[in-house]
Write a structure and sequence with these properties.
Helix content: 25-40%
Distance between the termini: 42 Å
Shape: globular
CATH topology: Rossmann fold
Number of strands: 9
Largest sheet: 7 strands, mixed
CATH class: Alpha Beta
Strand content: 15-25%
Amino acid sequence: MSKVTEKPYAPACERNQQVILDVLKRVIRSSDRRLLEIGSGTGQHAVFMAPHFVHLEWQTSDLINNHAAIQSWLDEAQCPQIKTPVHYQVGSTSFPEGTFDVVFTANTLHIMAWQLVQTMVIDWGIYLNSGTRVVIYGPFNYNHNFTSSSNESFNQWLKEQNSDSGIRDFEAVVDLMSQQGFNLREDVAMPANNRCLIFEKC
C-alpha cells in the first residue's frame, strides 16, 4: 500500500461535524465505553468528536482502501482513545468484534445498495446488545418524496455514479430497524436538508 503523504480532506465533514457532535452529546452516556463508527471516510469526524468523550473508545472502520487515509488523520491527532480502523465491508466481512454502546454512521446509507443496508441492519440486530444506540446521519425522503430540490439533484447524481445508490425512504429505514428490534427515539433536523435518526435496541 502506498504511503499517504497528505491527509485527505472532505469539506462536508467540516461543515457538519459540530451539529453532529451536538447530537452525540445527547446520545452518549457517561457509562458508555465503546463507540463504533461505520464508514469513517477520511477520519475527520473521529478526530474532531472523540476528544469530547474522554471516557469513550472510538473504533473507526471502513473499507481497507480507506485505512491509510484515516490513519493519517489519527497519527496527526495523537488521540489515544481513537482506535486504528478495522476492515468492515458490509456483506463481505464479519461485524467488528467486541461490545459497542453506540454505533455512529454518517452518509453511508445512500451510498450503499439497499440490499447492503438491509444486511448491515441485520448485523446490528445480531451483534448489538439491548440498550445500544444507533445514530444515522444523512439525507432521507419522507412519504417517497424528496425534502428539497437539492436532495433531488443529489439523488440524480448518485444514480449516475451507481444505479444502486440513492437517498433512502425514512419509513423504510424505520421499518427495517424495527424488524431488528430497534425503536426510533429521535428524528433530528440538521442543516442542508439532512437528518440524524437515533435508534435504541430493545
